[in-house]
Amino acid sequence: xxxxxxxxxxxxxxDSNDGPKQxxxxxxxxxANTAFRQQRLKAWQPxxxxxxxxxxxxxxxxxxxxxxxxxxxxxAQVQELRLDYTDCTEDAPNLARDGGGYRSMPxxxxxxxxxxxxxxxxxxxxxETNITVTxxxxxxVNETNRCHLxxxxxxxxxPPVLFYYHLTNFYQNHRRYVLSFDSDQLKGKARSYSDIKNxxxxxxxxxxxxQKPYYPxxxxxxxxxxxxxxxxELVTVPASSNSKNDTWTxxxxxxxxxxxxxxxxxxxxxxxxxxxxxxPNWQKRxxxxxxxxxxxxxxxxxxxxxxxxxxxxxxxxxxxxxxxxTLAMWSGTYELQIDDHFPASKYxxxxxxxxxxxxxxxxxxxxxxxxxxxVGGVCILLGAVFTVTHLIRPRKLGDxxxxxxxxxxxxxxxxxxxxxxxxxxxxxxx
Length: 430
Description:
Blueprint: H1 50-76, E1 80-84, H2 88-91, E2 103-104, E3 110-113, E4 124-134, E5 140-153, E6 161-167, H3 175-178, H4 183-186, H5 193-197, E7 206-207, E8 212-213, H6 219-222, E9 228-229, E10 233-234, E11 248-249, H7 303-309, E12 317-324, E13 332-340, E14 351-356, H8 367-392
Antiparallel strand pairs: 1-3, 1-14, 2-4, 4-5, 5-13, 6-12, 6-14, 7-8, 9-13, 10-11, 10-13
Helix pairs in contact: 1-8
C-alpha cells in the first residue's frame, strides 16, 4: 500500500510525542484570593456614644446657623425691582401727547426689595400703539406697540446694576427644543441645505423650495427673545448733580453679559447673504432676507444671542440683557421704554424686567441661607433633646438586656432577666 502524502494531518492520528490528554479545566467563578475581592480590607467604624454624638450635634448647629445668618444678610443687601409688563400693551392707558396719562400698575405686577426703605416705588405704565421703530440694524418696523414704565427708586443702587428679562412658563428644557441647533453652523461653517436637513435642526432647517438653510437654524434661535429695552431715564434730576438737562439717561451696555467661554462656540459665518435665509421669527429684523446691506449677524460678537442659546433648566428663568458696572443708579423717578415684540401671552407665560444689584454671594436668593439656618437649628434642638434624655434616663453602653431575642416571650414589663452569653443565672442576679 502506498504511503500517505506528506503534509496531510489526520485528526485521529496519535503522535508519539503527545502526552496524555488532559481533562478540560472548568472556568471558576470564584473571586481572586485578594484582600479587596475577598472583602478583607481593614476598616474602621465609629462607635456612636452620647459623648461623641451629642457634641457633634451642637458643633454642626453652631457652625451652620451663623453661616446661614451671613448668607441671609448677604441676600438682604441685594436691591431689586421687578415689574411684570406682560399686559402693558393691552391694559395700560394710551400715552398722552404731553407724556402724561400714566396709570398705576396692579400690585401683583410689582415686587421690590430694598435695604432700608419700605417706600412704594409708585410703579405706573402707559402705552403707544402702531408706531414705527428703528432697530439696531437700521431696519424700520411699522405697527409696533411700545410700553412705557415709570417707577421711583427710594434709594440708590449699585454699581454694578444688572438688568434682566424674566420669563415664566417657557420650557427651554424640552428635549426637542434643547437639541434643535447645529454646532458646526454656529461656529461659522457653511453647512448645506441637505446637511442641515439631516442634522438636529428639525423642524426648522430651511426652505425646501429654494433649498436654502436657515441661519441660524433650529428652534432655539428662532424663538429668541426680541423685546427691545432702552436705558432708563431719570426724570427727577437732583440739583446736586449740577446737570444742565431736565433728564438724565442711565446708560447701560449690552456687552459683558454672556459667559466668556461661550464665545468659543461661535464664529464668523462663511455663508454669503444669498446662501441662507433668516429664521421665520426674524422676518421683522430682515424683511428682505439677508442682503449685502443687511447681512447675516455676526454670532461671535452677539452676546445677547449667546445668552439666549444657553438654555434654562426650568420654565421660569431670568437672562441678563444689559448692565452698568461703573455708575450708581441714583434714587428718583425713572422712565423706561420697551418695544413689545415677544408674544408671551400666546403660550400663557409672563415677561418682566428685573433691575438688581449683587453681592459676593450673587443675586437675591434667601433659600441657601434659610437651609443652613434650619439645619443648624434642628441640630441644636436635637442635641438639647438627646442631652436631656441622656441625663434623665441614662443607658448603659452595650447593655445586652435591650436586645429583643434576650427577652422571654410573654414576659411582663420590667427589667429583663436574660443575658447574651447563655449561661445560667447566678444567685442575686435575678
